[in-house]
Design a protein that fits this description.
It comes from Catenovulum sediminis. The chain is α+β, with helices and mostly antiparallel strands. About 45% of the residues lie in helices and about 20% in strands. It has two domains: about 5-145, 2-Layer Sandwich (Beta-Lactamase); about 160-320, Alpha-Beta Plaits (2-Layer Sandwich), CATH 3.30.70.270. The radius of gyration is 32 Å and the shape is elongated.
Length: about 325
């Protein structure tokens, strides 16, 4: 007397599911046409759908949030190769979009899931059904996301000047070095602008250091308002700033610098009951063949800035080379 292995396998899995009904994992069985055959308590509890409501229903009709093309591609490998397939919450946050009811991870709007797809083969090795095991990994996911957010914030703070929100000198100079190497390697043009606040000591002496800090912050705000997303700006020193204009020639950089200079000249700083205005001087250096490292690039821009100081301040100068 022969035994139908396919039937036995399915009964065995059904019995196995009976043991796992109350475990905190989701269990689903699909036939070859992706119709739902088995649906455990976990799935019922989180979906609100009873087994009789989903039985013999096409998976994609009931759960429209599932990317059908992606899932079919994943599942076909299981059907055809008789091997397991996996997906993690990092690759795809969920397969079934269930709400998160865990109080500890209440910040998550939905349940993060790891999913395993297993083959259920017949006596001749043909996979007629697949099982889907859904693991609730919301706690792990939320903790990892929160940890990453904390680490990202610490990294940002380590790179950022607290007063202005610009890159600090150390990180900005790292960016300058990278841009120098990139531009040299691909023979592309970039321009460096260095500038500072005119007579900043006079601002501090007349209005006080907190007012000087307000001027420093106002200058940074003006810089951020005028720069592009691809530009790299930093606070180089006390009242000194620097910005790399990617893929920008000196004549284009001068237009930017003049716009920034005028913006700052026309702005009014308000600190407590004090209102005052100030100006900046700017120096531009376009990256050229004669500049062999990023330090020389900075020296060239600083030389142009010195020319602006010598020229009466509140102006823009372009480095012409040695």
């Amino acid at each position: 007397m022969t035994t139908d292995n396919s039937s036995d396998n399915f009964k065995e899995f059904h019995s196995f599911m009976g043991m796992l009904q109350n475990l905190d994992v989701g269990l689903v069985v699909l036939d070859r046409e992706y119709n739902i055959q088995l649906w455990n308590n976990f799935m019922e509890s989180h979906s609100g759908l009873h087994p009789y409501e989903v039985r013999d229903q096409l998976l994609f009709d009931i759960f429209t949030e599932i990317n059908e093309e992606w899932f079919r591609h994943k599942a076909e490998c299981v059907f055809q190769l008789n091997t397991r397939a996996f997906t993690t919450w990092e690759q795809r946050p969920y397969l079934f979009k269930f709400k998160n009811y865990r109080p500890i991870t209440g910040s998550a709007e939905f349940m993060y899931q790891n999913v395993t797809i297993i083959p259920l083969d017949s006596s001749v090795g043909v996979v007629e059904r697949i099982g889907i095991i859904v693991y609730d990994v919301t706690d792990v996911a939320v903790n990892r996301i929160e940890l990453k957010a904390v680490n990202d914030e610490l990294k940002r703070l380590s790179r950022t000047d607290k007063l202005t929100g610009l890159f600090n000198r150390g990180y900005w100079e790292e960016c300058l070095s990278k841009e120098f190497k990139r531009a040299k390697r691909y023979e592309q043009v970039s321009s460096l602008i260095m500038f500072d606040i005119d007579h900043f000591k006079h601002v501090n002496d007349q209005y006080g250091h907190p007012a000087g800090d307000a001027a420093i912050k106002n200058t940074a705000d003006a810089l951020i308002m005028n720069m592009r997303e691809t530009d790299v700006a930093g606070r180089y020193g006390g009242e000194e700033y620097a910005i790399v204009l990617i893929n920008t020639r000196a004549e284009q950089a001068k237009i930017f610098a003049e716009r920034l200079r005028k913006h700052i000249e026309e702005s009014v700083v308000h600190y407590q009951d004090i209102s005052f205005q100030y100006t900046v001087s700017l120096g531009i250096a376009e990256l050229s063949d004669g500049i062999s490292n990023h330090e020389e690039w900075m020296e060239a821009a600083d030389h142009a800035l010195y020319q602006s100081k010598e020229g009466g301040r509140n102006c823009v100068s372009v480095y012409k080379g040695k």
